[in-house]
Amino acid sequence: MDLSFLKMMKNLPAMMGQMKEMQAKMEALRVEGVSGGGMVKAVINGRGDLLDLAIEKEIIDPEDPEMLQDLIISAIADAKQKVAEQMQGEISDLAGGVDLSSLGINLPGM
């Protein structure tokens, strides 16, 4: 059996407490995603909830609503990617650098 896994299992109670702290930290997290050279900005929290959306009026073209739709989607996707990267880093730190996926442990959203 993998020694990293045994070490992780030994530290499971402490990890559970740290996991709760991490969840609270991620819920409080605010991340900004941008698109269109900063003309569209989306702010989400660690759960992926959209908290704010800012659109510069210069980017609004009534003749091309699809472009604005694409920029909004892109800004939200950028923010979600940043949250996922931060979560992955937090989880990696929590697991002591052990790649959980290599142990068959897949966390939602990762």
Describe the structure.
This protein has three helices and three strands. The chain is of the alpha+beta class. The chain has a domain at about 25-95: Nucleoid-associated protein YbaB-like domain (Ybab, Chain: A, 2-Layer Sandwich), CATH 3.30.1310. The model has no long low-confidence stretch (mean pLDDT about 85).
Low-confidence sequence ranges: none
Order of strands across the widest beta sheet? 1-2-3
CATH class of one domain: Alpha Beta
- From the spread of the alpha carbons, the general shape counts as elongated
Computed structural class: alpha+beta
DSSP strand tally:
3
**Backbone CA Rg:** 18 Å
Question: What helical percentage do the residues reach?
Answer: 40-55%
The CATH architecture of one domain can be given as 2-Layer Sandwich
The major sheet is characterized as: 3 strands, antiparallel
How confident overall, as mean pLDDT? Answer: 83
SSE string: HHEEEH
Distance between the termini: 25 Å
Q: Write out the CATH superfamily name of one domain.
A: Nucleoid-associated protein YbaB-like domain
CATH topology of one domain: Ybab, Chain: A
Count of separate DSSP helical elements? 3
Approximate strand percentage: 15-25%
